[in-house]
Amino acid sequence: MLTRVRWCVAYPLSLRMDETYMFVGGQWKYPYRAVDRDGAKVDFLLTAKRDLAAARRFLEHAIGRHGLPDKIAIDKSGTNTAAIKSVVAAIGMPIELRQVKYLNNPVEQDQRAVKRIIRPMPGFRFFRCAHILLAGIETMHRIKKGYLDCPGGKVACAAGHFYSLAA
């Protein structure tokens, strides 16, 4: 059961949520992602299916980590709409759902940057390997955009920041 979580940011959270597709082990898999109004990545999840259960699991994970948003912008995806409505019914708190094509552009651009890195790779053979590699790519992408704080203070380069997080 979901409950309202304390906010991690000083302003009301507004999410933009979308999913895309990638080829893993001869099958299509679906990375979901959400960004906030500033374009900072809130969460991502690689799933084997593109259905209501996957969309709801992603949304519950994002809400559990970052709090309940006031607004969620999505494309015309029926599964995302159903997932948001089922979470709203479970929580009992209102979330404004916005299905406007152009509000989702920041999340589309975020996906494009990750796909640009993945495209020259020979491909993923196993789902677990794809998940691990995507987590590293997403972490490096957040470091480059400046959305992660370094635990040991200021580090000059992105690779040094990554190594300090791994240590």
- Structural class call reads alpha/beta
End-to-end gap: 35 Å
Total E-strand runs: 6
What radius of gyration results from the CA coordinates? 16 Å
Low-confidence stretches: 1-10
Name the average pLDDT: 81
Topology as a string of helices (H) and strands (E)? EEEEHEHEHHH
Number of helices: 5
Please describe the biggest sheet, giving its number of strands, its sense, and whether it closes into a barrel: 6 strands, mixed
- What's the helical proportion of residues? 40-55%
Query: Strand-residue fraction?
Result: 15-25%
Cα shape:
globular
Structure description:
The chain is α/β, with parallel strands linked by helices. The protein contains five helices and six strands, in the order E-E-E-E-H-E-H-E-H-H-H. Strands 1, 2, 3, 4, 5 and 6 form a six-stranded mixed beta sheet that branches. A hairpin with a 4-residue loop joins strand 3 and strand 4. Helix 1 crosses helix 2 and helix 4 packs across helix 5. The chain starts with 13 loop residues before the first strand and ends with a helix. 24% of the residues are buried.
Descriptors:
167 residues; disordered N terminus; 43% helix; alpha/beta; six-stranded mixed β-sheet
List the helices and strands and how they pair.
Layout: E1 14-19, E2 22-24, E3 27-36, E4 41-47, H1 52-66, E5 71-73, H2 78-91, E6 96-98, H3 105-118, H4 127-145, H5 158-166
Parallel strand pairs: 1-5, 5-6
Antiparallel strand pairs: 1-3, 2-3, 3-4
